[in-house]
Amino acid sequence: MIDRREFLKTTAVAASAVAVTSGSKVFAGETAASHAGIVYTEKEQGQWEGKAGSHAPKVTVAEGKVSVTTEHPMTEPHFIVRHTVVLEDGKVIGGKTFTHADKPESSFDLPAGYTGKACATSFCNLHDLWVTEFTV
After folding, report:
1. Do 52 and 46 form a contact (C-beta atoms < 8 A)?
2. Cα separations (Å) of 34 from 26, 44, 106?
3. Which of 53, 62, 108, 119 could be stapled to 94 by a disulfide with Cβ–Cβ 3.0 to 4.6 Å?
């Protein structure tokens, strides 16, 4: 039987894939309409209205690296489970899984010379999957 941590990790990766699958609806700005109740953004907070400040990932890009932070308290019953960064073509360039004792901060190398859109995901164990789109 799969343990809870592995289940959450697998669910977060699968949800990230939903966010960037063929047609790239996240990048087309159709997240709310096409993935309502599955993917949340700063603009489309759905049932979690008011939670974006502590759930939507914050992204910085510098010197070929993407840094992701989520300004979220980390407690045993409520924490950020995972960050994932996905390029516009659906390629996952990295992911990091957290425990309640970790800081929700991660950094990933961009492919050499990459320019274009990408998205960072932040998965909360209570408030679902949050996506921030950004351009490199």
Report:
1. no
2. 9, 12, 28
3. 108
